[in-house]
Design brief:
Shape: globular
Bound molecules: fe (ii) ion
Largest sheet: 6 strands, mixed
Number of strands: 16
Mean pLDDT: 92
Order of helices and strands: EEHEEHEHEEEEHEHEEEEEE
Number of domains: 1
Length: 271
């Protein structure tokens, strides 16, 4: 099995940071070009499944300004020649409603089921969406928790993919979330874990935090993968889009996870 994971594309205009005054760090304006350059390589690989893991734009909040960014990214995603799953990010909902967003995907003939599952060889891949509670935090609805509990198939090894992390993580030093570590994981984390603990879940992969982290809890591996656009571009190089993606490949009974910037691997993990 071979999966491609592209997280937090954040296509848009590079603007000063909203969290660090005066700093321009995000190379959003180059995300489209970088992704477009990588697509022939992606299309030449034998991926069973591609995950676009949410946060496809860096929105302005102005519908007229943001619509072309969506059009651009949907056009690029449409040129992938392997099955593509799209996850729901938080940024998508800052300008458009969920229903409007789904319509955009449908109009581009792209999958808009933000949760689901698929069997590949001896693995079951499950992807999750989220809802927003009255405090503005993301959570998994009761309906989805019930679905997850029933959906996990004990005959397979399960891998979860979600925009949000299922568990908390050390966010010290994180450019975006150091002051709000609670914003990287589901508010009802314990409810989700209660389900996973009873099952054969080997790995949970998330995006959103923009950096790599790895830890184990309750015998489950938890990994966050870096953002396509914003990780290693330092403040003096606002136009240096790192074009980061992650490949998960299985061999015998091991999982090999590698993150690349362009052609070059800078992170490797074997589980
Ligand atoms: Fe996000």
């Amino acid at each position: 099995m071979k999966l491609l994971l592209v997280a937090d594309l954040h296509l848009g205009e590079s603007r000063p940071s909203s969290t660090h005054e005066g700093i321009i760090r995000q190379a959003n304006s180059q995300a489209s070009k970088k992704l477009s350059e990588l697509i022939p390589f992606f299309n030449s690989q034998r991926f069973d499944l591609i995950f676009q893991m949410g946060d496809i734009v860096r929105e302005t909040g102005d519908r007229n300004l943001d619509a072309p960014f969506y059009k651009n990214v949907f056009s690029l995603l449409s040129s992938f020649n392997k099955p593509l799953i799209n996850l729901l990010g938080n940024h998508e909902l800052n300008t458009f409603t969920l229903e409007e967003l789904k319509q955009f995907y449908i109009q581009s003939n792209l999958d808009s089921n933000f949760f689901g599952s698929k069997i590949i060889n001896c693995y079951q891949i499950i992807w999750l969406d989220h809802q927003i509670n009255s405090e503005g935090r993301q959570y998994l609805s009761d309906e989805r928790l019930e679905w997850l509990d029933k959906e996990i198939n004990p005959d397979y090894q399960t891998i979860l993919v979600s925009h949000y992390s299922i568990i908390s993580n050390d966010m010290r030093g994180n450019f975006l979330f150091e002051d709000k570590p609670q914003d990287i994981y589901y508010a009802n984390s314990e409810d989700i874990l209660d389900i996973l603990k009873k099952k054969e879940v080997i790995l949970s992969i998330s995006g959103h935090s923009h950096w790599i982290s790895y830890k184990t809890k309750d015998n489950i591996n938890f990994l966050s993968v870096p953002s396509f656009s914003e990780n290693i571009a330092a403040e003096n190089y606002p136009d240096n889009n790192p074009a980061i993606y992650t490949i998960l490949e299985t061999f015998d009974s091991s999982l090999y996870i590698k993150s690349f910037s362009g052609k070059f691997c800078f992170f490797s993990l074997e589980i």
